Amino acid sequence: MRIKSQYLFVIGIAGVVALYFIVRGLFGGGHSDANAKPIAPSGPPSVQVQLTPETVREYEVVLRGRTQSTRTVVVRSETAGVVAAAPVLQGTAVAKGAVLCRLAVDARQATLDQAKATLRSRQLQQQAMAELARKGFRSQTQLLEGQASLDVAQAAVRQSEIALNQMNIRAPFTGVFDRRDAEIGTYLSPGQPCGTMIELNPLLVVGDVPETEAARLHVGAPATARLVSGQTINGRIRYVARDADPQTRTYHLEITAANPRMDVRSGLSADVRVVAGAGPAHLVPVSALVLDAAGRQGVRYVQADDRVAFAPVAVMEETPQGAWVTGLRGALRIITVGQSYVAEGQKVRVGAA
Fold it and tell me: Which residues span the membrane (predicted)?
């Protein structure tokens, strides 16, 4: 059987390739790369550094917080009666003493009028008694009994005035009548609510401080809160808890801020910054921060003898220009390029960033 010409061509090509590898193996061509020695690097590794001076900067403690009313009070009735008037709408700012609910007077005014009439009668009787005692027709004991009756009548008038005044349920402080609980026609027993008052000036900004930062805060320190609404308010710390929350290990913080127009609401989320003193700090590129073998965050820098050293740092604040850190001293040559490829104590070649 004759072999086709196409098959002969393929067999010929395969034979040529096989012959090439046989000859290459016999004359050592395949060992040229294996026997080649690697080129050793010349000199220490090169890094780029940035000279970073020491700067005095205010320390800030940053935390999440929220606005909160200074006081929230449920205003309750002191006596029983039917609500006859509700002059204030809920959500309205009111002054201290404004009437929130007015109960029906019923017979209380008549009771007061009767007590006043009795008081006038007792006053006249006491005047006559004193005149008769002066002339010797009444004893000192009778005069004292008349004075006691007069005192009882005066107490009855005062009691009736208080009962009549309790018909008006008033705002205990200047603030916002936030919620109404009793409408006209509602019968209120003693202790039942008319509504809820909240005090928004001054306003509180509250949050929880980590235990690592609590010792740096003190009463009176200035603070700034940027609200989720975009508003910014300034205030001062009025309270830092001494006892940590057993669950979160944080300390409660309260800041008072002026809110004269009462336009900042209670319950808004806020980014809070509290000034906690001043001290040395360095501005370093965020990319220069590395971790050492122990997992500590820090920077690598070049010493005077061009050897690498590591310093742990604490980040105070991140800005578009870099990270403000503490833990360094003096002006340092911070490694900005190559910091991940060198080790402490290694000598390097230094180039400016």
Answer: 7-27
Only one residue has tokens 């040395």, namely 280
> Could you tell me which residues are beta bridge partners of residue 233?
225
Q: What is the largest CA-CA distance in the chain?
A: 172
Q: What is the 3-state secondary structure of 193-247?
A: EEEEEEEEEEEEEEEEEECCCHHHCCCCCEEEEEECCCCEEEEEEEEECCCCCCC
What DSSP string runs through 1-13? -PPPHHHHHHHHH
Give the start-to-end residue ranges of the domains of the chain. Answer: 47-57+280-352, 105-166
Q: Does the 105-166 domain belong in CATH 1.10.3210.10?
A: no
CA distance 280 to 145: 83
The model's pTM is 0.64
Question: In this structure, are strands 289-291 and 269-284 parallel, antiparallel, or unpaired?
Answer: unpaired
With vertex at residue 105, the alpha carbon angle to CA 99 and CA 107, rounded to the nearest 5 degrees, is 160
What number does CATH give the domain 47-57+280-352? 2.40.420.20
- The per-residue pLDDT string of the chain (353 residues; one tens digit each, 9 = 90 and over) reads 455 566 666 676 777 677 777 767 666 554 444 454 555 456 788 999 999 999 988 888 889 999 999 999 999 999 999 999 999 999 999 999 999 999 998 888 888 888 888 889 888 888 888 888 887 777 888 888 888 888 898 998 898 888 888 899 999 999 999 999 999 999 999 999 999 999 999 999 999 999 988 888 999 999 999 999 899 999 999 999 999 999 999 999 999 999 999 999 999 999 999 988 788 899 999 999 999 888 999 999 999 999 999 999 988 888 889 999 988 999 999 999 998 899 999 999 987 66
